[in-house]
């Protein structure tokens, strides 16, 4: 796969590969989510960051962060560790590119992580959320741009199992949640 297939400029692709290489080498479970993952399923749009779902125990975090720093990431380790342990999300940078990490603290996020598949990006193995996972993550966030992305994915990607997506959302939010109402109104069964 070329950088063009990822759908973003060279700095974002370089950031993705730098972080993915370290996570792969360390055996840390991760999945690319957000716009870069959506691009793998046919929704190409520009993004200026790398969004990752990452499972790393707090005890392993300092050593992993040190390896990321060696790969070129700029990390305030004290802040990142504090945010990771208290908020289960954090951000650092690779050059000018923000790297957003989210911990899979709810079973739905762990499911997205478990279903991720490895794809080749410029000769590097990178784990991406599958189409269902991308949709689930966007519907959990449920911002206006995320809803637009789900609409676009419904047109661009035939791999989404909408029955599965609805079932997973119901298990977390309940059948009367606004996400499910929006999904029923905008994405036919």
Structure characterization notes:
The protein has 189 residues and is an alpha+beta fold. It has one domain: Beta Polymerase, domain 2 (2-Layer Sandwich). The protein is built from ten helices and seven strands. The strands form two sheets. A five-stranded mixed sheet has the order 1-2-5-4-3, with helices on both faces. It has a two-stranded antiparallel sheet with strand order 6-7.
Keywords:
10 helices; 189 residues; 7 strands
Quick structural overview:
By secondary structure, this protein is an alpha+beta fold. It is 53% helix and 17% strand.
Annotation, overall tally of beta strands:
7
Q: What fraction of the residues are assigned to beta strands by DSSP?
A: 15-25%
- Distance N to C terminus: 32 Å
**How many domains make up the 3D coordinates?**
1
Shape: globular
Q: So, CATH architecture?
A: 2-Layer Sandwich
Helix tally equals 10
Going by helix content, strand content and strand pairing, the class is alpha+beta
Helix/strand order, N-terminal first:
HHEHEHEHEEHEEHHHH
CATH topology-level fold name: Beta Polymerase, domain 2
Largest sheet: 5 strands, mixed
Oligomer: single chain
Whole-angstrom Rg: 16 Å
Per CATH, the class reads Alpha Beta
Q: How would you summarize the topology of this molecule?
A:
Elements: H1 3-6, H2 10-26, E1 30-33, H3 34-39, E2 50-54, H4 61-70, E3 73-74, H5 77-86, E4 89-94, E5 97-102, H6 107-114, E6 117-121, E7 124-128, H7 131-141, H8 144-156, H9 162-173, H10 178-186
Parallel strand pairs: 2-5
Antiparallel strand pairs: 1-2, 3-4, 4-5, 6-7
Helix pairs in contact: 6-7, 7-8, 7-9
């Amino acid at each position: 796969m070329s950088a063009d297939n990822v759908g973003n400029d060279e700095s974002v692709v370089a950031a993705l590969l730098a972080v993915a290489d370290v996570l792969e080498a360390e055996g840390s479970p991760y999945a690319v989510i957000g716009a870069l993952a959506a691009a793998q399923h046919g929704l190409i749009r520009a993004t200026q960051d790398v969004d990752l779902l990452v499972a790393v125990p707090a005890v392993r975090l300092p050593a992993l962060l040190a390896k990321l720093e060696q790969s070129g990431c700029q990390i305030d380790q004290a802040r990142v560790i504090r945010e990771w342990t208290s908020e289960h999300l954090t951000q650092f940078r690779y050059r000018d590119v923000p790297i957003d990490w989210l911990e899979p603290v709810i079973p739905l996020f762990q499911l997205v992580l478990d279903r991720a598949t490895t794809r080749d990006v410029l000769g590097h193995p990178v784990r991406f959320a599958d189409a269902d996972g991308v949709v689930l993550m966007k519907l959990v966030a449920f911002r206006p741009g995320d809803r637009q992305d789900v609409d676009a994915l419904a047109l661009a990607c035939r791999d989404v199992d909408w029955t599965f997506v609805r079932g997973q959302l119901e298990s977390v939010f309940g059948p009367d949640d606004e996400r499910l109402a929006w999904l029923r109104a905008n994405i036919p069964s």
